[in-house]
Design a protein that fits this description.
single chain; 229 residues; mainly alpha; Four Helix Bundle (Hemerythrin (Met), subunit A)
């Protein structure tokens, strides 16, 4: 393994550890106890999915991992995207905090079958993200167009124009339910608004800077959900 790839691997591993720690703290410190089985189940599904995807692409596509380790408001160049990313981070944390508080104070009860089913959908959401990464090595965390970038229009990109966001919304919507909370869904809707704003801004950038993207949009009509939007 060369030095550049080793450096990328280290950054990715440190990012995984940081993410796993933040999610664990948000769930269990807020819940006030470790006997929160929905939290443990979700944390294992979440961390296993993220780890498996990271290990795969560290080996198969380190350039993708290199673009993915640049994350958060500070990585963006446009002020509007810095703000949207900051809001996205806040709402993601709320998707974890509200269910944990719900567990602590007993605000709502999600049926057992729905908790398990929601974890399945969380995993499916990660699966969609994995498929996107396999098909599009330019799936960066920030809005940018690289010199060698080309339009990807086949496979999952032939169904919707932003399948990574589709996968993300799937796992985000089912996160509160997987954690045993109906009230946690309140944090999903502002997250949805942030993602729609980001998506629209991204499309403007791609239409201007990525050759053939306008034609692709005419061919693939739907952005996130087939036959809806």
């Amino acid at each position: 393994m060369n030095k550049a790839k080793l450096s990328i691997s280290k950054q990715a591993i440190l990012g995984l550890i940081f993410l796993a720690t933040v999610v664990w703290l948000a769930l269990f410190i807020t819940a006030g106890k470790l006997i929160y089985w929905q939290g443990w189940f979700y944390w294992i599904v979440f961390f296993t999915s993220v780890t498996a995807i990271s290990i795969y692409f560290i080996r198969k596509d380190p350039n993708l991992i290199s673009s993915r380790v640049k994350v958060g408001p500070t990585a963006e160049t446009k002020p509007s995207q810095k703000i949207s990313q900051a809001f996205a981070a806040v709402f993601f944390v709320l998707l974890l905090l509200i269910p944990s508080l719900d567990f602590r104070f007993g605000w709502s009860t999600v049926p057992l079958f729905l908790v398990f089913l929601s974890n399945v959908f969380v995993a499916v959401g990660f699966g969609l993200v994995f498929l996107v990464f396999r098909q599009n090595t330019f799936a960066s965390t920030i809005i940018e167009v690289k010199a060698e970038q080309k339009v990807v229009s086949t496979g999952i990109y032939g169904v919707v124009r932003h399948p990574m966001y589709s996968g993300a919304l799937l796992l985000l919507f089912f996160t509160p339910l997987a954690l045993g909370s109906f009230w946690g869904l309140l944090a999903f809707f502002p997250m949805l608004a942030v993602i729609c704003f980001r998506l629209s801004d991204e499309e403007k950038t791609l239409s201007i800077n990525l050759k053939g993207y306008g034609e692709y949009c005419k061919k693939t009509r739907y952005r996130l959900i087939p036959y809806v939007w």
